[in-house]
Write a structure and sequence with these properties.
heterodimer; A: 36 residues; mainly alpha; 2 helices; B: mainly alpha
Amino acid sequence: MIAKLTARLRGADTRHLLMLVALAAFVALAAGSTPG
Amino acid sequence: MTTHADVHRPQPSRRYLVPLLLHVALPLAVGCAVYLVVRPAPALAEWTSQAVGLDGRPAFRVRGWARDQLPDAAWAYALTATPLVLWEDGPAAARRAWTAIAVVLAVGWELAQLPHLVPGSFSRGDLTASAAAALLAVGVLYVARRRREAARRPLHERPT
């Protein structure tokens, strides 16, 4: 199962990971720009 | 068939760089600049303002949408533009799915302020600005992608 998952992750488009990181950064920016 | 546009197509890293700078970094810089010089209220903006010698006070007195809605709109535009730029030449399903998530987040972040699920105070003006900016990003990058696709087509397939 782990081998299957690893193989799948290796074949995955890295842009999915980039998008997750970008969304987290946007949320952090929005949360951090709240006055207070 | 290899076209002139294919031969002179920039490498992936350069292909993403200019659109990322233009549609993501620039709007974010505009939003950050508004916080820094017009309303340095958030702790990070106040700290940066003091670090660059502005003493945490507004450098410019600006009122209205440029002060209140522009940063939110710039954030929503950059957020929506990110998947559209990153997935410009990727599978359409992935591009649409990530764009939908970005638009929901752009609009949902403002809506979630209503029941205080996220920090901030809800405003109809902010909601309208965020939704309009997200739609603008979709529209601008859709047109840009169609133009690029048209340029990649062989000359004999292009409309006259």
